């Protein structure tokens, strides 16, 4: 996923990807590049689990409402390269 973003950074739908431990598993939160897009959370197989934030009201898609209370941030994995 990240290789594709690096090849076309201006077209990337995300500006950063951070890793978290959520519900006992390593997950990856992709922060969208624009205001009203969901910020999707992916598992280790790149399957989308939910969107804990973003969208029109900023609260995600409602499928992981406990993310911000339960998740433990590990590290920043990727940030869009700016030239």
From TrEMBL:
Annotated ranges, domain DUF6970: 5-79
Superkingdom per UniProt: Eukaryota
Protein's name in the database: DUF6970 domain-containing protein
Organism annotation: Adineta ricciae (Rotifer)
């Amino acid at each position: 996923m990240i290789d594709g973003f690096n090849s076309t950074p201006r077209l990337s739908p995300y500006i950063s990807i951070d890793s978290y431990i959520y519900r006992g598993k390593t997950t990856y939160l992709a922060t969208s590049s624009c205001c009203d897009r969901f910020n999707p959370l992916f598992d280790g197989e790149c399957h989308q689990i939910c969107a804990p934030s973003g969208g029109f009201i900023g609260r995600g898609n409602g499928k992981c409402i406990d993310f911000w209370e339960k998740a433990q941030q590990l590290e920043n994995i990727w940030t869009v390269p700016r030239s």
